[in-house]
């Protein structure tokens, strides 16, 4: 079940479209050039989570691509329409906590060639069951070179490294490469050996220290200036973790930092916190610590909005 | 005027679709992930040029992306249908040589999420008038860092550097960056300083040598192992130039080689040979030599198929 709602000035709440019927022109530059942007967020019990963070990142991506997208009000109304229509048409079963979840994707393309106006829509779908599996059982991850060095984002804005574009063919190819090797997912590294992000996720790691004084729990993520996407889930979790007494840290990180960690996660708005069991075959921490920290941080994340 | 012909097992010659009516599902991974491939070729007097080279490169791109696309016969029939329908609907005016030209684009995406079958179509359109301008008047070009080093393509196949994918957002952003600086186009360089290619073209350069012995004319292009797309126009022109007495050379090339050249061109199947007047503000050769060599090589290219 997929609900589509197109942003359309003639329909202030968005125009619902049948997802089984073609809705895009074949000349749309979203498809002919991968020229557009997107966001994916979770709606819990009908309320889109971290919606301002997602709309803010969408606006930043639009600016990187010189794309003139609709304003926040139009997106918010279309999201509400899509989530409402999805709940009516295909009420999601409550999760283990009694919440209902819907995946909400926002897409804006440069529109048909020559038209000069973007095509923008919201899509609502069910949460893929595989993600709960990933949270429960963890991931085998491989490291893959992303080809860029960790300084290029700053000096080459045309590479769009901080923008969430529709040009995801490399991200998808990296995931296929991992699956062909029997792994579940990927952590990209820069050509100069820094840890970056996953193809569809941010990377977090935890270091615990208990040297006789007060125990210290540290949550760390690669620094943004290495050319990664600012993670909305990472951001929300950092705020919550800090309030709960965690120390926060920001890269540069190298693969050895991952292997030394007590736990590593791939995090995203839909997947939430998926623990990494192994990287290139080396186990990260212990199953007991991974499970305990995943439960602790997942509980913190669930309290964010 | 755009003619669309979808490859469809129920229609051996392809299924003509109205380009003004939505033809793609909004869940097609061509748009949601830029996950697909394309080729652009020229049909002259109804005959697609270098069609085997384009179909061969399409097949190679499909293999890089593990994409199961229709076979050559289906593409050839759909191309013939599209070119024929375009000629009937909107007969192109003959060019300066009395030929009629049609732009033919082949696109294959991974298809709608969950469907497991690609979406494939052929698009026929008129040649943009700007391209004849570019051939006649030449281009102001800037060099931009592509971010990748010249060896990464070999060791990181998931970066899809030799594949012509739909994920062209960076190519489009680089062109916008050039236009914002008052330039017409871009030549990408690798992070280790090698000349690569344009966002939608191959790079060629000519060196003339006349040291008292027999004059030598040398045509040079960056080597493929630097992670560039194999140019079908470059390939056809090299064959024709060799037969006409030119020496051929293959990079590695550095920007100084471009600035030292007697002429530099951006070449592609639709644009053909567009001379580069200047790179980062430095004139390449002289207007007289650029014009003479452009005429000579364009005549050779016109004889290829």
From TrEMBL, chains A, B:
Gene3D superfamilies: 3.30.470.10, D-amino Acid Aminotransferase, subunit A, domain 2. GO terms for cellular component: cytosol. The keyword Transcription does not apply. GO terms for molecular function: 4-amino-4-deoxychorismate lyase activity. One of its GO terms (biological process) is carboxylic acid biosynthetic process. It comes from the Bacteria. Its EC number is 4.1.3.38. Transmembrane segments: none annotated. InterPro entries: Aminotrans_IV, Aminotransferase-like, BCAT-like_C, BCAT-like_N, Class-IV_PLP-Dep_Aminotrnsfr. Pfam families: Aminotran_4 (PF01063). Keywords: Lyase. Signal peptide: none annotated. Belongs to the class-IV pyridoxal-phosphate-dependent aminotransferase family. This is Aminodeoxychorismate lyase. It comes from Arthrobacter wenxiniae.
């Amino acid at each position: 079940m997929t609900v589509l709602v197109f942003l359309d000035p003639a329909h202030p709440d968005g125009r619902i479209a049948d997802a089984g019927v073609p809705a895009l022109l074949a000349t749309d530059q979203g498809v002919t050039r991968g020229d557009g942007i997107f966001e994916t967020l979770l709606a819990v019990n009908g309320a889109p989570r971290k919606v301002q963070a997602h709309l803010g990142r969408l606006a930043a991506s639009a600016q990187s691509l010189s794309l003139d997208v609709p304003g926040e009000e139009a997106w918010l109304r279309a999201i509400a329409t899509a989530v409402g229509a999805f709940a009516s048409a295909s009420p999601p079963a409550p999760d283990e906590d009694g919440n209902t979840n819907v995946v909400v994707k926002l897409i804006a393309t440069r529109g048909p060639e020559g038209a000069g106006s973007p095509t923008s829509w919201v899509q609502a779908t069910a949460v893929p069951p595989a993600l709960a599996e990933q949270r429960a059982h963890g991931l085998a991850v491989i490291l893959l070179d992303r080809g860029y060095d960790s300084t290029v984002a700053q000096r080459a804005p045309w590479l769009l490294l901080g923008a969430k574009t529709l040009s995801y063919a490399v991200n998808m190819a990296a995931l296929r490469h991992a699956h062909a090797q029997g792994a579940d997912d990927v952590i990209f590294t820069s050509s100069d050996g820094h840890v970056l992000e996953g193809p569809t996720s941010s990377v977090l790691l935890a270091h615990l220290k208990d040297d006789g004084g007060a125990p210290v729990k540290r949550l760390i993520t690669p620094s943004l200036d290495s050319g990664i996407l600012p993670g909305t889930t990472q951001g929300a979790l950092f705020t919550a973790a800090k309030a709960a007494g965690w120390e926060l840290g920001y890269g540069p990180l190298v693969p050895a930092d991952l292997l030394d960690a007590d736990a590593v996660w791939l995090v995203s708005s839909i997947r939430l916190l998926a623990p990494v069991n192994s990287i290139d075959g080396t186990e990260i921490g212990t199953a007991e610590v991974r499970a305990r920290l995943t439960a602790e941080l997942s509980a913190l994340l669930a309290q964010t909005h």
